[in-house]
## 1
Amino acid sequence: MLVKIASLVFDFNLYPRHEVDEYCVTDYAKAMAAGEVFPPIIADKKSSRIVDGWKRAKAALKWQGESANIEVEFRSYRTEADLLVEAISLNTVHGERIGRYDLQRCVILGDQFGLDSEKLATAMRITPEHLDAIRAKLRTTRAGDVVANKQVGQHLPNVITIKNREGLKNAGGGNQVFFVNQVINLIEHDLLDTSNERLMERLAVLCDLLRPLVKKAA
């Protein structure tokens, strides 16, 4: 079914990867402009959220903008967990190679949605032992261990300050680009709850913190 790309919803809370590869998106957009035909996007029939095909959808946006039409296969899911299982399964069977951080994100999302270990491991196409190893790594990272948090603080010097250590304890592991992309996604797709006073207060703090960083980078 052909639908307007603007009608689809990018819900990062159900995206199995830690970030969207913008280089891949650009390559896809060029291929689309050259006439290459891609498989249809998979989306939830009820909510229009993209289940599989984020990069293809973003490539269509990059190529033709929000007026672009794109082929979509709508599917129905009994629960949010079922939707997540398919999103993970489809992302691990084709397309861009799924990396270490992506596997960690899949485990985090699976645990958040209460997926049992067998179903999650099957969707991720890994062994139960591998799943247990990823969970053990995440537990170590979340405990605030500076070495385990090198994913977040990999740019830090060998001498870690008290300020660094406290920040790492609250970071929870993962790639920094992932966290920034989450905020960008919420803003770009008008998903922020602007009526939430606490949220807007924290965004104001973020703005104040970003100004000197942007000025320094410039």
## 2
Amino acid sequence: MPPIVAAIVVVLTALGTSAATAAVLAPFILSIGASLVMGGISKLITKLSTSSPSITSTVASRTVTTRQSVAPRHVFYGSNRSGGIITFMHTTGTKNEKLHIVITLSGHEVQAIPAMYFDGIAVPLDGSGNATGNFAGFVHAEFNLGRKTQASFPGLVAAAPAYWTSAHQQRG
């Protein structure tokens, strides 16, 4: 008999159980005890691993634009709603009242960028990239799709030529 089973048999016989009954009950008691211990360890491991993001939070965070020095490269197939990575940020104006942000959505060419959202609210744009509705006068957007022949953002080159030049084309 293994030493743990023998110890359980000794305890059961000391409590007044016959040796034959103790020999039958000992493996059963050992398996219940082992199950309880393993269950406790499993709960502990589960609690420790809940700090990792769930699939729900991972999917929800895809629509958030972040600023990172090193970021994963996004690859899109079909229609997607996604946040991007801020790759350039600069202010201009006499009181720094104009904020210029370049948000990179993917590391490859895309077919279209049909909409832009601020805090989950669609920003309607006119044909020249100026916002209409609640964001009128506050937002101007320029889009490049990552084509190999695309030029740099002309509005940004004009507004901040020392920081964003015609060489900043973000092709591909």
## 3
Amino acid sequence: MYILISNMSGYIGITDYEWFHFHKNKKHREVIFWRKSSRPVNLREGVYFFFLVKGYRLIEGYGITDEVSSKPITELWEQYKEKLGAETLEELCEKLGKSENETIGYYKLKEVTYLEGGIDLQNTGINFSPAIVSGKTISYEETRKLLETSGDKNKLKIIKEPLEPKQRKIYYPRQTHVSENNLESIVAERLDDIEPGLRLIKRQYSIPPVGRIDLYCKDKNGDLVVIELKKFRAKDYSIMDQITKYMGWIKENEAKPGQEVRGIIIVAQKNERLEYASKVVQNLQVKTFSLLIE
């Protein structure tokens, strides 16, 4: 069973604290909300985009979608520069964990408004699960409620009811584990949920003749971290063999003196056999990362 959205007029997007306050301090009225994935959510123009800032779970502002697309990072920087939320191209690439020639998805938002004090979603009655990864579309009435709460109900005249999207958007069932095809992208965007301070260095890092690392990271202490996602049909010994080879190669070829190399295996559901096997390998952990998509 799928949920078909046919009356969407708003979107609540989970927003990075530093990105948001960079724009707030500069009083930007036009901003570029980027995604590390090359594909943005299929929103249409004219949709209210509310910023749900990480860490506080408060809606601290909103804008209106003016453009939804994907472009190479360098092209976006040449066009919008600090409207992307960074002072330099190098800083932006570091935040994204990508090279400047890679492509990202983005929303160009206009008429950005910053709310003092923010809006606590718990006080609005809007259902927004903590398990949501990127964001959630909301109805006309929910959009109206947020605008009225913000004190900007006069802007409702911009919204035309009913709103019909250019394409019907299909969401996953309300109770389903995310597929592994999407898990890598989700984990790459939510590394803080795996471990605070974890930062992406490279994704799908090829190290011939050993193989290809799913996510190659650095932790808050400056140590190197190899992350592997376990395929649903993969054998336990196969993933253990893979990650220990990767850890050994990184230790030998990239780690500096005194720099530790750790490994993390991400599984979609608890795997006791894998957890027991990992206990005899130094600096190796098994973590579960499953989500409900709304």
## 4
Amino acid sequence: MLSIRDHYLEHLVVRGASSEVWSGLRLGPGGFAVPVALKTLTTSNVDSAEHVRAFLAEARAASVVCHPNVVHSHELVHEHGRYWLGMELVRGWTVRALLAALDANAQSIPIPIALTIARDIAAGLEAIHEAGLVHRNVAPDNLMLASSGRAVILDFGCAAWHVTERVRSTPPTVALDLPYASPELRGRLPVDPRSDVYSLGVLLHHLVPRRGNVPFFLDGIISRAIDPDPARRFPSARDLEIALDLVAMREGWMCTPTYVAAFLADVMRTIPVVDAPSRAKLEAQARAKLEPASRETIEPVPPRAILEQRAAAPPAKPAPKAAAKPARPTADGSLIMKPRPRTGLVGVGAKLAERPDAPKPRAPTGLGKTRIRLLRH
């Protein structure tokens, strides 16, 4: 393992066009070790003054935001001739991986879970905006769903300060996920926090693709968030979050992070937990699930041979019963519950006699005109 000033690098998680992310440990005295993620420039860009300036700007932007729904940056280290940004290690899946897994299984996300994810992202965006920043790249690859059920915003590479006036510098379009970029970003016009509101509205539109059966006011919220005119959108991420809260409370769609975590564990059980976004790997795994499995050619057996084979075969023993599994949520949000075995009295008369260890009932005792049958347990 590589050593970087009280850090040990374990393995490369993802490599992008200009930077890469490693998982590692932050070490201290007495066996102190904290899992961290370390972001740095790739070898080909480490000597580029332009890329170094952009990386330091990203580190400064990420350092001013502290919120549960935004990845937390711990420190900036200069070692081995390059900068390393120490960040919180978020274990889970990207929103891109969730959408790919749902498409591969022809499933849809339950609306309560979709709203919970969107509300988490809106809360993180509000913290970013209050710090004086515009994220400008709210897209499925930059949004992690932690295995605990928490949504986390990543990557401040396109973030810019807006403070007192609207941002006038725009990132190159190659750095953006264009379907989620606002019209003003695509047109290289000045942007403000309403640009991030638009991106979140597009994400919510993809999380709830079939809106025919949803309340009309939820459809109105999504339509307002993705309005091409910024003046007609929600003025802030907080206002969008409040609107989603009201819909969730009105319809009884409030759910906890633990329920979201259980849903993710059920849908993503075939896709390994990752430490940072790895779009190519996760999409390849989702596509592999769609490919038909190879089948061996089996020659048909004549019916007579089947009968002779069954007659010669010894009687099969009953298979042992599998251990009962705890209830878990399914992709549609419902729970699979197994009935509990009944205890105590299981029946009277003929039903009681079906139990081989059941005691025989006593002879009826007459009490006047009343006849009582006593059952011994």
